[in-house]
Amino acid sequence: MQYTAVSEVSTLVSTAFSTKWNMSQLLPYCVAIVALFFLKLSLSSQHRSTNPAEPGQIQPRPWYIGHMTGMISRHTHYFNDLSKTHGVDIAILPMPLGKIYAIWDIHLIQSALRSSAMSFDAIMMQHARGLLGLNERCLEVARTGMLRDLMRLTTSLLSGRSLATISVDFLNHAAPVLNELGARPTYCISDFYDWVQTIATLATTDTLYGELNPFRKDEGLLVDVWLFEAGLRRLAMNIFPAVTARRPSHARDRLVRAITPLFDETISDQSLLPTLTLKRVEVIRSHGITDPEQVARIELALLHGATVNTVPTLFWTLTHVLACPELVRDIRREARTYIQPGAEIVVPFSVLSDSSPLLMSVFRETTRLVNSAMSTRFAMKDALIADEHGREYLIRSGSTVMMPATAHLSTDVWGSDAAEFKSTRFYGWDSRDKPEIKKRRAAYMPFGGGKHLCPGRNLAQYEILGMVLAMVMAFDVEDAHSPNKPVQIPQLDPARMGQGVGKPTFSKPGNRLAAKLSVRTGWENARWRFTV
């Protein structure tokens, strides 16, 4: 596989720098590293395919490293740049250690996602050691069935009534913050993004760990969640992480130490764990992994998956709504039939799932604009994929396939206003028989596609809908620095590799989005409760 040389270099570098050497001792390692690198380059050039069924190449600028440096500097937007510059549907991107297939055409993407030759599990396994620090035995067990079983279980538990229960659990863990704010006439938030991030991350950990949640005792762990997330790309490379990914590596280790006791049967009451986590731990142990630390490392992946895109999407949905007073008014009008002010505000799950078409459209439209997810697969065998005209392209076995969601902003798909926020754009989304809707559904892929749709996509959706609904109904929100003016939507920073949603970027250091919350008349001291 194409990542073998990277692993070899990583091993040599780690060995060399983990021991005290003088320069004469270190020199052979340096020579070996350079020799391995150029040997791989040579082999890659000699064996580069010229099969006419393969797509054409986009040559890197500068030679060999241009695509790699472009991805590092521009992240997911680099693929937008390539699409605009070259205007192709699919291409090979030559890389120092092999090649990548990049696909932009929505029909080719859907064909690739449906192909049995394309594996997402293989991508996860490539990076599991670097990201999570799993030992070799755990990696082998994951490859031979544990990962598959965990995905099946998680998908099952995040659907139907269980989905409703877990969604409501999250919202009820977040509700005390709203209740506390409702007891104050006004409240100023100096950094609205940090405030949203803290509330949502803490509610997520409550949902995953229940009464045993260590994040309630040490809120510094909330910072570690995002230090870990910020270093995912460097951790995944796994090239001397003690130097290249020191802060995220230390944050990961602190998170692992914090949750490890939850999975030690000798010191914790396992029955106190919520069902989702408890059932996942049972699957892990059924595969022979009983070491609490290794269980914790596996479950760290669930915590990451539950926060990495949900939290920024919640922020962007809130700001897109709050920036438009007319939209706030319309959402309140829609919800008024089901939610009235009072001492206790009870919100049935059905209000979120069935009775809020405008709010649902707003969520989907926000996601379309801010989500630049990269669907990545590994070709386990040669595969042919076809466009809408039946033209086939060959994808070679052992290659990485990257499929950016550039169609989210395509004027061909969404119309001339594709770059604008239109709150009602997703009305009629379930009318699958309409050609326009079918085309848009194929292009809309914030949660992946094919066999590997994100199992937590619906949970994230209902968590966000519930939080936005409560904020809009209970509070008037304005820019803290500009009285009587709505908050402004910050600039979106491009999503980095490994992320689906970018964070806000601010023009000056310390210049964060500040918001002033005022309790609406009749909603003072209200207690929020979400029910199944």
TrEMBL record:
<dbReference type="InterPro" id="IPR001128">
    <property type="entry name" value="Cyt_P450"/>
</dbReference>
<dbReference type="Pfam" id="PF00067">
    <property type="entry name" value="p450"/>
</dbReference>
<keyword id="KW-0560">Oxidoreductase</keyword>
<comment type="similarity">
    <text>Belongs to the cytochrome P450 family.</text>
</comment>
<dbReference type="InterPro" id="IPR002403">
    <property type="entry name" value="Cyt_P450_E_grp-IV"/>
</dbReference>
<keyword id="KW-0479">Metal-binding</keyword>
<dbReference type="InterPro" id="IPR017972">
    <property type="entry name" value="Cyt_P450_CS"/>
</dbReference>
<dbReference type="GO" id="GO:0020037">
    <property type="term" value="F:heme binding"/>
</dbReference>
<keyword id="KW-0349">Heme</keyword>
<protein>
    <submittedName>
        <fullName>Uncharacterized protein</fullName>
    </submittedName>
</protein>
<dbReference type="GO" id="GO:0016705">
    <property type="term" value="F:oxidoreductase activity, acting on paired donors, with incorporation or reduction of molecular oxygen"/>
</dbReference>
<dbReference type="InterPro" id="IPR053007">
    <property type="entry name" value="CYP450_monoxygenase_sec-met"/>
</dbReference>
<dbReference type="InterPro" id="IPR036396">
    <property type="entry name" value="Cyt_P450_sf"/>
</dbReference>
<dbReference type="GO" id="GO:0004497">
    <property type="term" value="F:monooxygenase activity"/>
</dbReference>
<dbReference type="GO" id="GO:0005506">
    <property type="term" value="F:iron ion binding"/>
</dbReference>
<feature type="binding site" description="axial binding residue">
    <location>
        <position position="454"/>
    </location>
    <ligand>
        <name>heme</name>
    </ligand>
</feature>
<keyword id="KW-0503">Monooxygenase</keyword>
<keyword id="KW-0408">Iron</keyword>
